[in-house]
Design a protein that fits this description.
The complex is a heterotrimer. By secondary structure, chain A is an alpha+beta fold. Chain A is 47% helix and 19% strand. Chain A has a 5-stranded mixed sheet with strand order 3-2-1-5-8. Chain A has a 3-stranded mixed sheet with strand order 4-11-9. Chain A has a 3-stranded antiparallel sheet with strand order 7-6-10, with no helix packed on it. In chain A, a hairpin with a 2-residue loop joins β1 (126-133) and β2. In chain A, α2 packs antiparallel against α3. The chains are: A alpha+beta, B mainly alpha, C mainly alpha. Bound molecules: heme-A (2 copies), dinuclear copper ion and copper (II) ion (CU).
Chain lengths: 266, 622, 203
């Protein structure tokens, strides 16, 4: 009998919650999806918003309706109903969250497994070593044998898995490209591995996400006045060109260095 | 002259100075003997001075006055209650063994720390109000957020629950006091020391590592970083001592008839919390010790040069600090059960489920620490198991939330301020919990960790969760503690400002985080300008609302309407006593005859106090 | 005033659990002590068994010499127990000398430990494993030291003939603490000195 009153309300709560979910989903603001992994992560987020809206709707509706329906009038001396529980209900509200939890686990695990392209990146893509330092990044292109100087920009080809190895020279940093939905910390005492597949050509902000000292704020290319360059994603052809240029520049530098040493020696 | 020898704050000054100086001399002598260079290394000496100054303070306040005579075989009267109870305001500044006095000491002291921590938030919110730099430099900004986090967590949120528990639990159990009144007093007096240590680090360049204090950044921070570590260790010892006390009290001091399943849910919640504290807090002490040795003794736990492992710190730290977040919210859950049941005139729905879910959360809480490290480069096989255990915690928490809804249903809901805070808590905590569930899912967490999304999550659970429960508890027991009613209109005004400002402050942070605003930055991309202005304005309103609360409490404690013994019609034992309760609580041992929430049962009672002999009643009333 | 206060203090009989609150408090406290050691063991395991990092300079930890030390500490656990047995026979001198024996054995242990520190080929500053070795053994040594102080205090109180077979929780507590220190040492000895893979064969 009690459940009869509760059931319609639960349905209304679900409907209102669904409306909240839809509003949340429609008005969600996310950065651009600039990697192949981004889409899946955003689907996860949409799924979260869907059940969160409904849970929130139900909880809030029951709370508000309960408080309104059962509010005490002034000088009300009545007592509430002496109910101590209801096993059926309790099982229900253990079981439903359990189902949601299982769904989250499956979704999260699936996306995690699917989006791990490290092996592919190592085999056929770019392998790039990122070194965080106070306060900037250094990049080593392991396949191309290019080691960039400090404060250089990261240039990567579009559509190829990239395998990153990350370390740090001093303190912990975290290499974060919000448009890629990609973040991994750089720790001074170990190497971390992570991978991503950029899917859009353009420039994207690079953010240092972990507090690393006074320059932490500035280690974010989106902040005005920052000297950190954005990451640049280019087509394969442009990338090859860039690699050739870098190599030529490096060779020239080496030659110059050679010449100065020979000049000095002479 | 004699005041300087009696156990009191005046004696503390010279004992702590004496201990500090002696310890410094000994340290210098040891360095001389070991042939270390230089003999007078000031950072070592300051560390030693702080640690032994703390011991000296406890000696001065009277922490050992009882034990020493006992050791040398003097007759100790276990019924010596000269340090028990407050008869004037001065007794609140003394070593006092009365759990009610200690409870008030705790609550008032930690609330002052809340104001200070909140003040820091106000300052850095002013900095964040607009893009660019306004009032703070980067160093100052980092110092302020670190102090904000540490003060809020270690010397406000964890101990304030110890304070509420201290006041209420012995009353609820029908006990005359806690099991170890002196240990109880010592653990309170450790807190001012810890707070002083933390705040005094401003004099030594402060610390700029965030409340987590990760190496190797913590190795770089100025000397204040060491004081942060010492402060956390002292605060941790204090909470361990209290937890031991709670556990023993709850197990051995229950009044006759108080079976486990007749205990009020606040007691259950504190039982689970105390178990967590005992098992988890030593880990943070361990992490802090190691980091401190690295800084002050040149060890190599986490250094690059010595082949240390920076991630090991994170594992040990979070092995405490995740259980710590439940330490910071479980007692609050207990408060909510009391408040909602009493003010909605209805038994707690599913009493056993609520009691067991606390235990479930406590146990599961130990298996989820690494969810703070998904993007730290920990062993990758650990990620999925941790994700699963983290998500599972949503289930016992959900049981609690739904049980409280079930408690409201079919009740007679009185919208007192205490109840408003409790109901507001349900909504705000659900939001915070749901964002926590999102964070538990590895790929999503990795895409936004260390962003303002995290800040939004933990302020929803900390402010929208714990702080609202604390306010609910303050309003609920205010009449019991002071004997007077608070001003209900001001209370409601406080609630509504808090509730609205809280959401306006912390909800937009989700969006900022998703859009790529990292945490712990003094400046940010221009696109976040207007939302940060909004947040800052709302946060000032949030801060201002606290002033209403403080005014209401202080004014009502002196001029409020007399409350009588039981203004809310509560059934638990503390409401059987006068307000404020007599110094020794119960004139005769009460007898518990039923469950604690028998609302709606004709003439039902939880406990009775057998009629004392008339002569005794008189004295208690006097 | 205080006279009136004392008079008002009621006798409250708590719910009968048959537990000794002091002993229970001590045991819970020891659980948290164990957790403190746990933090250091966690680090040790992380470095040695997961990270497979060796001692500085592949040093050989003197397991054989230390086993003598272990024996001494285990022995002292028995002498601590003798103190309680003597008390049950109301033999106060027995209590005192058992405590004294425990104290001496404990001191020898500590002395040998310090001696080991001096002959070791590395210092706490030498690499992470050096740091954790000294911290683990040092933390334990600190507990032995605290135990020695407690034993001393117990000896003082023994001289005043205050323990009785009925009421001696203080003495019991100290012996429980001493056993705890002993047990932790046995664990530590097993993990740090004996576990395969941790003792590097002498070169
Ligand atoms: C009171 C403190 C508190 C509480 C209770 C929680 C509760 C939870 N927290 Fe939170 N958390 C913090 C304080 C707290 N947290 C802090 C301070 C940090 C940041 C530390 C730092 O880095 O500085 C943090 C960070 C943090 C992270 C790391 C983020 C990161 O750094 O990348 C994660 C990830 O998993 C997480 C998860 C959770 C989860 C799953 C819960 C769950 O316990 C929540 C459970 C509750 C609910 C789910 C709502 C009610 C349930 C229902 C209505 C039932 C139905 C619901 C479902 C089935 C979904 N938290
Ligand atoms: C219980 C815990 C708790 C509480 C209550 C709060 C309360 C608040 N917090 Fe805090 N916060 C943390 C715990 C908490 N915080 C933690 C752990 C961190 C992480 C730190 C880190 O990154 O390491 C953090 C970080 C943090 C940040 C992120 C900083 C960054 O990453 O750059 C921000 C940003 O807005 C913030 C804001 C606020 C605000 C506006 C409040 C407001 O609710 C405060 C309201 C203000 C008051 C209640 C005081 C008002 C007082 C007066 C107006 C005057 C009276 C004063 C006197 C008489 C002295 N907090
Ligand atoms: Cu580098 Cu933050
Ligand atoms: Cu956590």
């Amino acid at each position: 009998m009690k459940n009869l009153k509760v059931l319609p309300l639960a349905i209304i709560g679900t409907v209102i919650g669904a409306v909240i979910s839809v509003i949340l989903i429609v008005t969600r603001t996310l950065p651009m999806q600039a990697s192949e992994q981004a889409a899946n992560i955003d689907y996860l987020y949409i799924f979260f918003l869907a059940f969160s809206g409904i849970i929130f709707g139900i909880v809030t509706l029951f709370l508000l309706v309960g408080v309104y329906r059962f509010r005490a009038r002034p000088n009300d001396q009545r007592e509430g109903k002496n109910v101590h529980g209801n096993t059926g209900l309790e099982i229900l509200w253990t079981a439903i969250p359990f189902v949601i939890v299982v769904a989250c686990v499956i979704g999260g695990w699936y996306v995690l497994a699917k989006d791990d392209v490290y092996a592919a990146g190592e085999k056929s893509g770019q392998k790039i070593h990122i070194i965080g330092y106070q306060f900037g990044w250094k990049f080593d292109y392991m396949n191309e044998e290019i080691a960039l100087k400090e404060e250089a920009e990261l240039v990567v080809p579009v559509g190829q898995p990239i395998a990153f190895e990350l370390t740090s020279n001093d303190v912990m940093h975290a290499f974060w490209v919000p448009d890629w939905r990609f973040q991994m910390s750089t720790l001074p005492t170990q190497t971390n591995y992570a991978s991503v597949t950029p899917s859009k050509i353009g420039t994207f902000d690079v953010v240092c996400a972990y507090l690393c000292g006074v320059g932490h704020t500035g280690m974010n290319s989106a902040v005005e006045g920052s000297i950190i360059p954005q990451v640049r994603v280019v087509s394969q052809a442009d990338f090859d060109k860039w690699v050739a240029e870098r190599k030529a520049a490096l060779a020239q530098e080496a030659e110059q260095a050679d010449q100065t040493t020979t000049a000095e020696a002479a | 002259m004699t005041t300087a020898l009696k156990p009191n704050l005046a004696r503390c000054i010279w004992t702590s100075a004496l201990f500090a100086v002696l310890a410094m001399l000994v340290a210098a002598a040891v360095r001389q003997i070991l042939g270390m260079d230089p003999v007078v290394q000031w950072s070592t000496l300051v560390v030693v001075a702080y640690i032994f100054g703390a011991v000296g303070f406890i000696v001065g306040i009277g922490g050992f006055d009882y034990w020493w005579p006992w050791i040398i075989g003097k007759d100790i009267d276990p019924h010596d209650h000269s340090q028990h109870g407050a008869y004037s305001w001065r007794d609140y500044f003394k070593f006092n063994t009365d759990h009610k006095v200690i409870g008030i000491q705790y609550i008032v002291f930690t609330f002052i720390m809340f104001l200070i921590g909140g003040m820091f938030a106000m300052i850095f919110r002013a900095e964040l109000a607009n893009p660019g730099y306004q009032v703070l430099s980067d160093e100052q900004y980092n110092a302020l957020i670190s102090q904000h986090g540490v003060i809020m967590i270690f010397v406000f949120l964890v101990p304030v629950f110890a304070g509420i528990g201290n006041y209420v639990i012995p009353l609820m159990l029908g006990a005359p006091d806690m099991a170890f009144p002196r240990v109880n007093a010592v653990s309170f007096w450790l807190l001012p020391i810890a707070s002083f240590t933390l705040l005094s680090s401003f004099a030594f360049g402060s610390f700029d590592t965030g409340w987590t204090g990760y190496p190797t950044l913590s190795e770089q921070s100025p000397f204040g970083g060491t004081l942060f570590q010492i402060g956390v260790i002292i605060a941790g010892s204090s909470s361990i001592a209290t937890a031991v006390n709670f556990l023993v009290t709850i197990v051995t001091m229950r009044a006759p008839g108080m079976t486990l399943f007749r205990m009020p849910l606040l007691v259950w919640a504190n039982l689970a919390t105390s178990a967590l504290v005992v098992a988890a807090t030593p880990f943070v002490a361990g992490a802090m010790f190691m980091a401190m040795f690295d800084r002050e003794m040149g060890t190599n736990f986490f250094t690059i040069a010595g082949g240390g492992s920076a991630i090991a710190y994170q594992h040990i730290f979070w092995f405490y600090s995740h259980p710590a977040v439940y330490i910071m919210v479980l007692p609050g859950f207990g408060i909510i059960s009391e408040v909602i049941a009493t003010h909605s005139r209805k038994p707690v729905f599913g009493y056993r489920a609520v009691a067991f879910s606390s235990a479930g959360i406590a146990v599961l809480g130990f298996s989820v620490w690494a969810h703070h490290m998904f993007a730290s480069g920990m062993a990758s096989w650990l990620r999925v198991p941790i994700m699963i255990s983290t998500l599972l915690i949503a289930i016992p928490t959900g049981i609690k939330i739904f049980s409280w809804l079930g408690t409201v249903w079919d009740g007679v809901v009185r919208l007192t301020t205490a109840n408003l805070f409790a109901l507001g808590f349900i909504i705000a905590f659900t939001i915070g919990g749901l964002s926590g569930v999102m964070l538990a899912v590895v790929p999503f967490d990795v895409s936004i960790t260390n962003s303002y999304f995290i800040v939004a999550h933990f302020h929803y659970v900390l402010f929208g969760g714990s702080i609202l429960t604390i306010f609910a508890g303050f309003y609920h027991w205010f009449p019991k503690v002071t004997g007077r009613m608070y001003n209900e209109r001001l209370g409601r005004l406080h609630f509504w400002i808090v509730f609205i400002a809280l959401n306006v402050t912390f909800f937009p942070m989700h969006y900022q985080g998703l859009m790529g605003m990292p945490r712990r930055v003094a400046d940010y991309a221009p696109e976040f300008g207007w939302s940060n202005t909004l947040i800052s304005v709302a946060s000032f309103a949030l801060g201002a609302s606290t002033l209403i609360f403080v005014y209401n409490m202080i004014h009502s404690a002196r001029h409020g309407k007399p409350a009588g013994a039981n203004p809310w019609g509560g059934l638990t034992l503390e409401w059987l006593l006068s307000s404020p309760p007599p110094v020794f609580n119960f004139p005769v041992t009460p007898r518990v005859i039923g469950g604690p929430y028998r609302f709606g049962e004709e003439g039902a009672r939880h406990a009775i106090i057998p009629e004392p002999e008339p002569a005794e009643t008189e004295k208690v009333g006097a | 005033m205080s006279a009136a206060v004392e008079h008002n203090a009621p006798e409250v009989q708590p719910y009968r659990t048959g537990l000794n609150p002091n002993l229970m408090g001590l045991i819970i406290f020891l659980v948290s002590e164990l957790a403190l050691f746990g933090a250091f063991f966690m680090y040790y395991g992380h470095m040695r068994f997961i990270g497979k990092v060796d001692y500085p300079g592949a040093f050989h930890i003197p397991a054989n010499e230390t086993s003598i030390n272990t024996l001494i500490l285990v022995l002292s656990s028995f002498t601590a127990e003798f103190a309680l047995l003597a008390l049950l026979k109301r033999h106060n001198a027995g209590v005192f000398f058992s405590l004294l024996a425990t104290f001496i054995l404990g001191s020898i242990f500590l002395g040998l430990q310090v001696h080991e520190y001096m002959i070791l080929g590395f210092t706490p500053q030498d690499t992470a494993v050096g740091s954790i070795f000294f911290s683990l053994t040092g933390l334990h040594g600190l507990h032995v030291f605290v135990g020695l102080v407690l034993l001393l205090l117990a000896m003082i109180r023994t001289c005043t003939h205050k323990w009785t077979p009925e009421k001696h929780t203080g003495l019991l507590g100290i012996s429980v603490y001493w056993h705890f220190v002993d047990i932790v040492w046995v664990i530590l000895f097993t993990v740090v000195y004996c576990l395969p893979g941790t003792v590097t064969a002498p070169a």
